[in-house]
Structure formats: structure tokens, C-alpha cells
Amino acid sequence: MRTLIVEDEFTSRMQLKYFLEEHGSCDIAVNGTEALAAIDLANKEKKPYSLICLDVKMPGMDGNELLTNIRAMEETLGVPPEQRVKIFMTTGVTDPKSVLKSFYELCDEYLAKPVDNVRLLALLKKHALIQ
């Protein structure tokens, strides 16, 4: 499993990294611009990410805007829906409007911070990212 963690807050970034690197390689981006560059490079190298953990609230490009850009990039590249990267939104924002907006923009899961590793593990299995 190849993962990109997009998170501007150090502690949350490290918590995810330490847990997820047990299941594969992890790259980190601290904002949307870095994330788009990492995703573009991964696609050009024919080594796309399996999972992107994406914070909703970030300075500059927020998580929902980045999510829209990622899905548009996949559409441009002709990635079939079943082969799209899995995107788990990770955030302290749990109001129903924000959750629905993320799912409308085609995220796969929505995790409240602090991320519960037991729930995250179950979601990785649910989406066949690990066995």
C-alpha cells in the first residue's frame, strides 16, 4: 500500500505516518500544492497512491478543494472508478454539512480526529487496502 498523508498539523501527521507505515510506504505533504505535485509525480512514474489521508481544514487550498482536483485529475487520466485512489478525509470538523460535502466530492471515508487506529485499520480492510 502506498499512502500520501496531507496534513498541516505535525502531531496528526506523525500519528498517521507511524500507524500507516506498518502497512506500506508513506509520503507526506503539508498542503494542497505539495499534495498535487506528489500525486502528479506518482502518476507519471506509474506508481499511483493507494490511499490519501486528507485533512479538511488547511491553509490555502482546503481538503475539499484538493479532493475535487484529485478526482478531476483521475478523470482526465481516464482512471476507472474502481481504480481510483481511496481518499479518507481526516478532520476535527464533524458537522453534517462538511461530511456531506466531502462525500459529494467523492471521498471514500470520513474520520474524526484524533483518528482511532482500530477504526482506521477496519477501513483499510474494508477497502481491500490490506488483508
Main traits of this protein?
globular; five-stranded parallel β-sheet; single chain; Rossmann fold; 131 residues; alpha/beta; 5 helices; 19% strand
Summarize the structure.
This protein is an alpha/beta fold and 131 residues long. The chain has five helices and five strands; from the N terminus they run βαβαβαβαβα.
Walk me through the topology.
Layout lengths: L1 E5 L3 H11 L4 E5 L2 H13 L6 E5 L7 H15 L8 E6 L4 H9 L4 E4 L4 H10 L5
Parallel strand pairs: 1-2, 1-3, 3-4, 4-5
Helix pairs in contact: 2-3
Structure notes:
The protein has 131 residues and is of the alpha/beta class. The chain has a single domain (2-126), classed as Response regulator (Rossmann fold, 3-Layer(aba) Sandwich). Helix content is 44%, strand content 19%. The protein has a 5-stranded parallel beta sheet with strand order 2-1-3-4-5, with helices on both faces. Helix 2 packs parallel to helix 3. The longest helix has 15 residues, at 63-77. The model has no long low-confidence stretch (mean pLDDT 91).
How many separate structural domains? 1
| Main sheet makeup | 5 strands, parallel
| Shape, principal axes of CA atoms | globular
CATH level 3 topology: Rossmann fold
What would you say the CATH architecture is?
3-Layer(aba) Sandwich
CATH superfamily: Response regulator
Radius of gyration equals 13 Å
Give me the number of helical elements.
5
Mean pLDDT over the full residue set: 91
- CATH class wording: Alpha Beta
Name the structural class: alpha/beta
Beta strand %? 15-25%
